[in-house]
Write a structure and sequence with these properties.
The chain is an alpha/beta fold. Helices cover about 45% and strands about 15% of the residues. A 5-stranded parallel β-sheet has the order 6-5-7-10-11, sandwiched between helices. It has a two-stranded antiparallel sheet with strand order 1-2. Helix 2 packs antiparallel against helix 8, helix 5 runs parallel beside helix 9 and helix 9 packs across helix 10. The protein starts with a helix and ends with a helix.
């Protein structure tokens, strides 16, 4: 018994030493916790650096040179059933161009992709089921901001040739447009002196390149000291109005360019606000104003949720929420010129 007791004490001592050493190493490199504001880059850079494997944030995504990341092809998860096809589009079937269909392109983030929902419960899939003449292509990607949605749209319009584009952000996505890092390096638009969009922070590097770049910028030890400086430069913009102004100006230009990009091909454009329980009213008001000020065809799904008068998920949409969104979009499609022309034939 005494020998066993001594052995346990030795093991406990070794474990404590290892834990202490790991703790000291963690403190010397990236520290504990994450005190930074998620509206700025520092919080997301620290999150990336805390991962032992820097590619961890890309488990289900591949690096994309202009969009940051894009879903991997042939993903097959079982709980819940989640699949992507050979193009990385959500669903179990391969994409086939169908000229006799009314083609709808749904561009958005994880709420459009259908994160945490089964394949058939992503709202674009529900929408397609409402009319056999629809072909709905789901281009939702988890974590995307309006900037990445717009880049995706302009890079795929010629390939998919939609009659209608559903540009479908949640309110939080407006904030993502002001980040150059969110779980991974991402593109960042800025406005030049003539209020034109200029794309920066591209091409996006592979995870190893991204990690090397961050280490060169922030070092390997006492990283938090340098991140503190980055945060100190950012926080005043939240109080002096600069952040709010850029939030409105930049996203307004992105939405306007997405609308122009769509209509230049002869397709219709519908900005769809995907309402969430945690919507910040101030950000929603910015989105509403963007649509009204620029004459953008706009649908907010909040009224549909309020009319349903039932509790809805605090997380990603499930079947219940997807049906509400799909039906609201379906009703609006009935007023779209391209659909009216298509339905007459």
């Amino acid at each position: 018994m005494r020998r066993s007791h001594k052995a346990l004490l030795v093991l406990a001592g070794i474990s404590a030493f290892i834990f202490s050493g790991a703790a000291v190493w963690q403190e010397l490199t990236v520290g504990f916790g994450n005190p930074y504001n998620p509206c700025g880059d520092a919080a997301w850079i620290l999150m990336f650096l805390k991962q032992w494997q820097p590619s961890g944030s890309l488990t289900f995504h591949d690096v994309h040179p202009t969009r940051g990341w894009t879903p991997k092809a042939h993903v097959a998860e079982t709980n819940p059933p989640c699949h992507t096809n050979g193009r990385g589009l959500r669903g179990t079937s391969e994409y086939v161009f169908q000229p006799d269909k009314y083609v709808i392109l749904a561009v958005g983030d994880s709420f459009t992709f259908g994160a945490e929902a089964a394949d058939q419960d992503a709202w674009p899939c529900v929408l397609e089921s409402l009319d056999s003449r629809f072909q709905v292509i789901n281009l939702g990607v988890s974590g995307y901001g309006l900037d990445q949605m717009y880049i995706t749209l302009r890079e795929t319009m010629g390939e998919y040739k939609p009659a209608l584009v559903l540009f479908a952000p949640i309110a939080e996505d407006l904030h993502r447009s002001l980040l150059s890092f969110r779980g991974y390096r991402k593109p960042r638009f800025v406005l030049d002196g003539e209020k034109r969009l200029q794309l920066t922070n591209v091409p996006i590097g592979e995870p190893g390149e991204t990690l090397a770049g961050l280490r060169e910028r922030f070092g390997r030890f006492f990283v938090r000291r340098r991140l503190d400086e980055l945060e100190k430069g950012f926080l005043p913009t939240l109080n002096n109005g600069k952040y709010d102004q850029e939030l409105k100006d930049l996203n307004s230009k992105i939405v306007l360019e997405a609308d122009h990009c769509t209509r230049a091909t002869g397709a219709d454009f519908l900005l769809v606000h995907l309402a969430t329980v945690g919507d910040a009213s101030q950000t929603v008001a910015v989105l509403d104003d963007i649509a009204q000020s620029n004459g953008i065809d706009y649908l907010s799904t909040r009224a549909a949720f309020e009319k349903a008068n039932r509790p809805w998920s605090y997380a990603h949409y499930q079947r219940y929420e997807a049906v509400i969104v799909a039906k609201a979009v379906f009703d609006r499609i009935g007023t779209v010129p391209s659909w009216k022309a298509f339905a007459r034939h």
